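USER: My hope is that you can spare some time for a protein that puzzles me. I am handing you a single protein, as its sequence and its fold in token form. Walk me, if you will, through where the backbone shape changes along the chain. The protein I mean follows directly.
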Amino acid sequence: MTAPPKPGADRVASDWLACRGLAMISALGPAAQAAVASATAILHDASRATDVRVRAAAALGAAATAGSGVEVAKALETIRQLAIAALRADLAEATRLSLDETIGSDARKADGTAAVIPAMACRRNAWRLVTLADAVERSGGAAGLGGLPGADADAAKALAASLREAAGKLDADPTAKTVGDVLQSLDKTLQ
């Protein structure tokens, strides 16, 4: 087994360590109250990698309780913005790369050429969306951030449902067109 990277050595190593810690917080659930503030800070830190922030949302959804001191409305808004930003970033990157149309997408850039997002990147976005949905409200309606005091329960339920629906569409049809369609739908429904 290889030793884990040292914190501060580089950004990738730091993100790896943060993800490992956030996974432990998620596994411990409410027993990890001491780590809720750290997970909250990571969620709101826009300089962090998207996947690290998604894991922070998952940790919060699993560990935060009524007494955690989490600003629930702010956390839910950050989750909403994070979902949309992740999709926009992948569309922008696909457009920037100007990949060959033969890879399999029919999303079009302004110049008429295809913007392509690899299927695995679409599935990564599906994972992100379902993980964010679970942070808001666990599958089966179990409490997440949306069940904490200060949350608009109906809005949280709608957010979780929209994120899950979008994830399902991306998983079923992992193309740039679907990413664009899902993004457009989330932009409308999550405002």
Observations:
- The longest strand covers residues 107-108.
- Residues 99-106, 109-113 have pLDDT under 50 and may be disordered.
